[in-house]
Each structure stands twice: as C-alpha cells, then as structure tokens.
Write a structure and sequence with these properties.
Blueprint (H helix, E strand, L loop, with lengths): L2 H22 L3 E3 L6 E3 L7 E7 L10 H11 L5 E3 L5 E3 L5 E3 L18 E7 L8 H17 L4 E4 H4 L12 H12 L1
Parallel strand pairs: 1-5, 3-7, 3-8, 4-7
Antiparallel strand pairs: 2-6, 4-5
Helix pairs in contact: 3-5
This protein binds zinc ion.
C-alpha cells in the first residue's frame, strides 16, 4: 500500500465515522417533569404519535420552560418536545405512560393509546410549519425509536382523534413518512 492510498483510506474512515455519528447520535436534553405521566411496569411500545404544541399563555410561544409550565396546568405531557432549533427535550421516561394522546384510538381498535405509545411534540403554531432542523430531529428521533422497539404505527394525533385534534399543524406528513421509509434501506 502506498502512502497516498493509506492517507486516502484514513480520510475515508474519518468521513465514514463522521457521517455515522452525525445521523446516529441523538443529543437529548433532560427536562423530566413530575406530572402528566403514570408508571406502567413492563409496558410494550408499538406506536409513535406526533403532535404540535406552543405556549399559548403569554411570552415566547416557543420557550420550552413556558411550554412545560402550560403542560403542568393541564396535567399533560409528552415523552419528547422538539424545539424550533431542532433540540430534543425529554420530559418523560419511555418506560412510563405519558398523557399525550387523550381520548383516541389506533387503527387496530386500541383505545388506551398512552399505554403503548411514545408521544413527540413539535413546537409549531397554527400558522407556522416545523423548521428544517425540527423535521430532521424528528426523523432521527423516530428512526432511533424504531431501532429499539417493534413499531407498528407512526401516526399523527389527528389520525387517532380526528374529531378533536388537528395536529401536527402545517406539516408535510406524506413527505415525512417517505423520508422515514427511505432511512430503512
Ligand atoms: Zn396533539
């Protein structure tokens, strides 16, 4: 092996390592809450539900602490909230039931959706779409969840509670599902 091919190999390995860590590692920020969830030992996760939320109570509508404060008022939560900059905040352990789905049902008839799902909130408003960073973070997070559980459904809140809910808002769901499917290949 020549010096040139050795240096090419080293560059190749560096690039390979960089691209693997960029897509595989998730930087999760701990924002665990003390409300809006229930322990459920041995629960089996087979569903991911995507939502939208924002702080509707004055101040910065996309401030994570104000969003969490609003959740506490209603006694609700989500496992994850994704900020406008793509930061992923974890509010509830995946082993616990988070109160995010409300009265809803899965296509197979399951009605206790909180007990078998992971809930993810995108910070968006009624008029704004998720940012590119948010969409990318959601893609990485859901893909990561799919490597750890046997996921049957990735659905919108509006899919499981169509009369009550319209979220996630202003989000190209078909494009997202296509991107998610492409990651498997
Ligand atoms: Zn929702």
């Amino acid at each position: 092996m020549t010096m040139k091919s050795i240096s090419n190999l080293i560059i190749f390995l560096i690039v390979l390592n960089f691209s693997a860590s960029a897509s595989d590692s998730l930087n999760i920020i701990n924002k665990k809450v003390s409300f809006g969830f229930a322990t459920n030992p041995g629960r089996s996760v087979n569903t991911v539900i995507v939502h939208s939320t924002f702080n509707n109570s004055g101040g910065d509508k996309y401030d994570i602490d104000l969003v969490i404060k609003q959740f506490s008022t209603y006694g609700v939560s989500a496992h994850y909230v994704i900020g406008r900059d793509g930061k992923i905040y974890q509010l509830v352990d995946e082993k616990d039931n988070s109160y995010h789905a409300g009265k809803s049902s899965l296509p197979d008839g399951t009605t206790n959706v909180n007990s078998c799902s992971i809930g993810i909130e995108l910070m968006t408003s009624y008029t704004e779409s998720p940012t590119e960073e948010q969409s990318k973070a959601l893609l990485n997070l859901v893909n990561n969840i799919k490597t750890r559980y046997s996921i049957k459904y990735v659905l919108r809140h509006s899919d499981i509670a169509p009369v009550r809910k319209t979220d996630p808002w202003n989000f190209d769901w078909e494009a997202f599902k296509k991107q998610l499917d492409n990651l498997k290949k």
